[in-house]
Write a structure and sequence with these properties.
Helix content of chain B: 25-40%
Oligomer: heterodimer
Strand order of the largest sheet of chain B: 4-8-2-15-12-13-14
Strand order of the largest sheet of chain A: 2-1-5-3-4
Radius of gyration of chain A: 16 Å
Number of helices of chain A: 6
Largest sheet of chain A: 5 strands, mixed
Structural class of chain A: alpha+beta
Radius of gyration of chain B: 27 Å
Order of helices and strands of chain A: EEHEEEHHHHH
Shape of chain A: globular
Number of strands of chain B: 31
Number of strands of chain A: 5
Largest sheet of chain B: 7 strands, mixed
Structural class of chain B: alpha+beta
Helix content of chain A: 25-40%
Largest interface: A-B, 53 and 57 residues
């Protein structure tokens, strides 16, 4: 049987202290806490729909144990921006029509954020590699690529790190 | 990125659109991008139970007993249902929709009682306090069974000694189309080309697995919120449960991709049964593995073509023979077969033809609706056949096509006159030209190019007598409400109809909300299938909005003391066309109407063109309202040593009639390009004795960001379609020619034709080796 572990983590700037089962995944915990913007597509790290940032690194939360998030800072797409204060990636995804069914988008934007953190001006190959763990069945990625390029440009113009 | 070529047919007066045709950000985009959109599997209810489904892992079994007593005794389990607990009813898959017609009689048990017919078939349902308890309960259900002989190949299944899957024999449905005199046509041909092509089972692989939640409310109404393309299944759910139709309410949430895989019932029935049994809210979300085995996939087809041509390329006779594997239940297989049979000749004119087809039951997973619905499988065959004909005649493949394209006003294979523009030639030329300078061969890498053209219907089969209803109203503050039960499956259906209402009423998109997908509170719109949503719902919304506009302008005309024709509306303001300084804000006008009891809303119905059906002997008659035409072109490189194929460029050029939202239309074309590439090169469901072997996205390979080529979408607008403002359907048409164009490009690169999709590296190497030794 699974044992319990007491953990503390920060999600989108909010601190949570709670007991988790040792076999509970971070995906499951986040959704249980109400962060249902983190989507479940496969539970095997094949699709990337559940990607979140853990201390700035993109991870598939379906293969991270909740207990491993102890003391970590987790950011989901909701934590990146709001309609009033959108992250440049979010603004660019909307402007470029990069969203169709939208189910892959929370994970996709998180992966794009991690990509731009590492490569503020990604080459074509870097961008494709950076998104290769995030499947989209609707768009052919065309508009996702344009949105990321546009966001990279906007971030550079602002002179800010993404 | 993308080009729009605006070319109107001579004599057509192009209205100046304010919103239609513009690439406006969709109304659903912010919610999805900020993580605020609630999908069916995100909903939580107080006291909610979690459901699981017990499924057979074997494909063909006789069931002796299903004993759920141990599972029922498990603490936390609230219901375990087997076939013995259900009303003895079958689910009818038929024309899901609103017309009440039934022609298929494709019945399927809700849960298995006697006989498992495919691997994945449902045996029992569990509802429990937690997912873990529900999962544990599944293991405590004892199923006693014996193996039963199965059949896993449609050609084996047609043999007299084959086990019968259901009914009297395994041939579920046949069609024949006869036009002119095929024998005479072949006698006049200079050359006869014969080929057989095969396509594989394809999985929709939408990112959101099937999901829903249901509860029974204080009026004994079963409420279901679900990810579906078809809310009209509420009737099938009610019939299966034996409750009145008005006691089931289905609301579709934003769907995380459908592509046909959510056209049939998924979780709705299971949820309704469990919610009724437990009197508690029940949620059911399929795992990815379950999604792979639970819903119907793309039918594999074997298509034989025999085509007679003149030396100049004119097609004078055509024979086609099509066989599809329906799997273990009929589902929509007969309709998909009909689409494929009609499309067998593609967008080409042939006077003398003879087509025969059949769909056959096997113990494989049922195959069902998938974007393209038989037409794309037909396209894979007819477009490779066209290239083989071109090769035999030493003609340019585009020139051969150009000489045979059907034209507006001519009759297609079933004798239906084409009423809209056919811009196949300009589409294929534009797509080819957009490939740009050709990459060059290097080392063991060979470059090749291919094109493909198609004729794909939009809108449902005419004798279904399809209708769609929509309601449009203006509020006292001038904002607009659109209500229609259309489902939004990701293509932007709810946003597009808002844009149409906004165009008619002169109200900006941000001032409009579409309430969609609710069978009880919204007028029924019919399905988001068959590339019909924009065509049907767009027309209904346009009718309703036009009626509201007439009422508003009628009152405004009185206000100004001017005739209605002298007024227009833009930016929520009525103005005098010749004197734009004279204005009346819409909120003021709406209030005037409210005070005087003038209707500020309208419920409209749009009726598609109808027909009475096909002649059973000749297959002649009107089948569809209309067709979309276009082309796809691809450039690939093939490493002849390793067989590795890379798609370099992929261009879709289509006459969409009229783009409603430019970005959304281009998105359909771009998405089709990559999905079609997957079908051509990597996607294939594998089975052993009916057992599904590919149940994850690491075994079933859809293209990733690294596989995406340079994709270009070219949009032509003939404004000649049957949809709003002359629009045609594009969701399926954009997909139809992609795989064929890639197959033709590979054949061009390596000089050898591979007749079976997908074209894997192994097949390339094997084909080249065989060609060398031959």
């Amino acid at each position: 049987m699974a044992t319990e572990k007491r953990i503390a983590l920060e999600v989108n700037g909010r601190r949570h202290e709670l007991s988790v089962a040792s076999n509970q995944t971070l995906l499951d915990l986040l959704r249980e806490l109400g962060y249902v913007d983190v989507k479940c597509g496969c539970e095997k790290a094949d699709c990337g729909a559940c990607a979140v940032l853990m201390d700035g690194e993109a991870v598939d939360s379906c293969i991270v144990l909740a207990a491993m998030a102890d003391g970590r800072r987790v950011t989901t797409v909701t934590g990146l921006g709001t309609p009033e204060k959108p992250h440049p990636l979010q603004a660019a995804f909307i402007e470029n029509g990069a969203t169709q069914c939208g189910y892959c988008i929370p994970g996709m934007i998180v992966a794009a954020k991690a990509l731009l953190d590492r490569h503020p001006e990604p080459t074509d190959a870097e961008m494709r590699f950076g998104l290769s763990g995030n499947l989209c069945r609707c768009t052919g990625y065309t508009r996702i690529f344009s949105a990321i390029r546009e966001a990279a440009g906007a971030l550079k113009a602002k002179g800010a790190r993404p | 990125m993308s080009d729009t070529v605006l070319t109107a047919p001579a004599g057509v007066n192009i209205p100046e659109f304010r919103q239609v045709g513009k690439p406006l950000p969709r109304t659903d985009a912010p919610g999805k991008t900020f993580g605020r959109t609630v999908y069916a599997g995100d909903i939580v209810m107080p006291n909610m139970l979690y459901a699981k489904v017990l499924r057979s892992t074997a494909a063909s079994l006789t069931i002796k007993k299903v004993d759920a007593s141990r599972a029922r005794a498990l603490p936390g389990v609230h219901a375990v249902l087997t076939a013995w607990d259900l009303p003895d009813r079958l689910v009818q898959t038929d024309i899901p929709g609103q017309t009440g017609q039934r022609s298929l009689n494709a019945a399927q048990p809700i849960l298995v009682k006697d006989h498992v017919r495919f691997s994945g078939e449902a045996l029992a349902l569990v509802a429990a306090e937690s997912l873990a308890i529900a999962e544990a309960a599944l293991l405590l259900i004892d199923v006693e069974s014996e193996p039963f002989p199965g059949v896993y190949d449609p050609f084996e299944a047609m043999k007299p000694e084959a086990p019968v899957v259901f009914g009297e024999n395994n041939v579920i449905k046949t069609y024949k189309i006869r036009k002119g005199d095929a024998a005479k046509g072949f006698a006049e041909a200079d050359l006869i080309v014969e080929n057989t092509f095969h396509t594989q089972v394809q999985e929709q692989a939408f990112l959101e697995p099937e999901a829903g939640i249901a509860w029974v409310d204080e009026n004994d109404v079963i409420n279901i919120r679900v990810s579906t393309q078809v809310v009209e299944h509420f009737r099938a759910v009610a019939d299966a449960l034996g409750v009145p139709h008005n006691r089931v309410q289905v609301k579709s949430m934003f769907v995380g991709g459908g592509f046909g895989g959510k056209e049939n019932i998924t979780v709705e029935l299971y949820l309704a049964l469990l919610a009724r049994a437990t009197r508690r809210p029940v949620r059911l979300v399929f795992t990815r593995e379950e999604s792979f085995v639970a819903h119907g996939k793309r039918h594999p087809f074997t298509i034989r073509h025999r085509t007679g041509v003149k030396r100049d390329g004119t097609i004078v006779a055509a024979e086609a023979d099509l066989t599809s594997d329906a799997g273990a239940y009929a589902t929509l297989s007969p309709y998909i077969l009909l689409y494929a049979t009609i499309a067998a000749m593609g967008p080409y004119r042939v006077a003398d033809l003879k087509f025969d087809s059949r769909t056959v039951a096997t113990n494989n997973q049922p195959n069902d609706a998938f974007r393209g619905f038989g037409t794309m499988q037909a396209c894979v065959a007819h477009e490779q056949q066209m290239d083989e004909i071109a090769k035999a005649l030493k003609l340019d493949p585009i020139e051969l096509r150009r000489r045979n394209f059907i034209r507006r006003g001519e009759k297609n294979s079933t004798g239906q006159t084409i009423e809209s523009e056919v811009w196949s030639s300009r589409c294929v030329e534009a797509a080819w030209e957009a490939l740009g300078p050709r990459a060059s061969n290097r080392g063991s890498v060979r470059v090749g190019r291919g094109v493909a053209c198609y004729q794909q219907s939009y809108g449902r089969i005419s004798w279904f007598r399809d209708t769609c209803e929509a309601w449009v109203g203006i509020e006292l503050d001038g904002t607009v409400i659109v209500r229609t039960a259309v489902t939004d499956i990701g293509a932007g259906q709810s946003s597009a109809v808002a844009q149409i209402a906004g165009e008619v009423l002169g109200v900006p998109l941000k001032e409009i909300v579409t309430y969609f997908g609710d069978t009880a509170l919204n007028p029924l719109a019919g399905t988001s299938t068959a590339s019909r949503a924009l065509f049907m719902t767009g027309n209904a919304v346009k009718l309703a909005a036009t009626a509201v506009r007439e009422n508003l302008l009628g009152r405004a005309a009185k206000h100004f003391g001017l005739p209605v024709e002298s007024l227009d509306i833009a930016n929520s303001t009525v103005f005098v066309v010749n004197d734009p300084a004279r204005t009346l804000p819409l909120p003021e006008l709406a209030k005037m109407c409210a005070t005087e009891g003038i209707h500020r809303n309208n419920l409209a119905i749009y009726r598609a063109p109808t027909s009475t059906g096909l002649d059973p002997e000749t297959g002649q008659g009107r089948v569809f309202a209309d067709f979309t035409y276009g082309a796809h072109a691809a450039e690939v490189e093939v490493d002849v040593e390793t067989g590795e194929i890379t798609v370099l460029k992929s261009v879709g050029a289509h006459d969409v009639g009229q783009a409603i939202n430019r970005a959304a239309v281009e998105g359909q074309i771009e998405g089709s390009a990559l999905m079609g590439q997957g079908f051509a090169l990597s996607e294939e469901m594998k089975f052993r004795e009916g057992r599904t072997l590919t149940t994850s996205l690491s075994e079933y390979l859809i293209p990733t960001a690294e596989d995406a080529p340079e994709i270009k979408a070219i949009v032509f607008e003939s404004r000649s379609g049957f949809g709003p403002f002359g629009a045609k359907g594009i969701g399926e048409p954009a997909y139809a020619p992609v795989a064929a164009s890639i197959a033709n490009a590979v054949a061009d690169a390596i000089g050898v034709r591979i007749h079976d999709l997908p074209i894997t590296s192994e097949k390339v190497v094997r084909a080249l080796r065989r060609a060398k030794t031959a």
